[in-house]
């Protein structure tokens, strides 16, 4: 900020951005002289900025001397789209957290593993204490069970071959026949199977190349209110499914 309270702006950055905007408006390319006329910049200044933008990969110079948008801009565009996609999904998750007063999870089954991509919680709605890696505890969590329900029996068998189910609490189901053969309902509940005192609910999310799920965790004492969670959870899962369908891809959360 300057003394007048206005933000301090860097004029050279503004000029460079203006050049990028004008180049982007000319798919076939535009010369330095035309750029100078379009932007009102002095020709020497235009050449100086163009050289810098070409060097950094934001512009490319064609054989005929015209300038076009460079690969770096395409990379920024892809990154911006991915960030917007993640932001929209987190917005749905945040709204669900506030509505249900519960921690919210987005997970998928990726390359043979349970991957929790995003968690939206708060001090008031803390996430479950992950005392056992979710990859090893798919049999005991609503998240894992929902994801495994999207696999074939052979794929589920392979998963449990790699991660044999173990008792995590007195309520944990470990029978392979039940875990592999028994159909899993569309809405999955974990009633203190992973952690005593904690219950979870998970719904499938469509639009991903691999099984995905939206889930929430809450104190087990609130199990009587599970019915109040069902419709909002399904609605949020459907909304994320629509977002993914429009985007045509599942975002990279790394």
Automatic annotation (TrEMBL):
HTH iclR-type domain sequence ranges: 10-71
Pfam entry (one): IclR_C
UniProt domain IclR-ED: residue ranges: 72-246
Keywords: DNA-binding, Transcription, Transcription regulation
Residue stretches in coiled coil: none
InterPro entries: GAF-like_dom_sf, HTH_MetabolicPath_Reg, Tscrpt_reg_IclR_C, Tscrpt_reg_IclR_N, WH-like_DNA-bd_sf, WH_DNA-bd_sf
Protein name: IclR family transcriptional regulator
Organism: Saccharopolyspora mangrovi
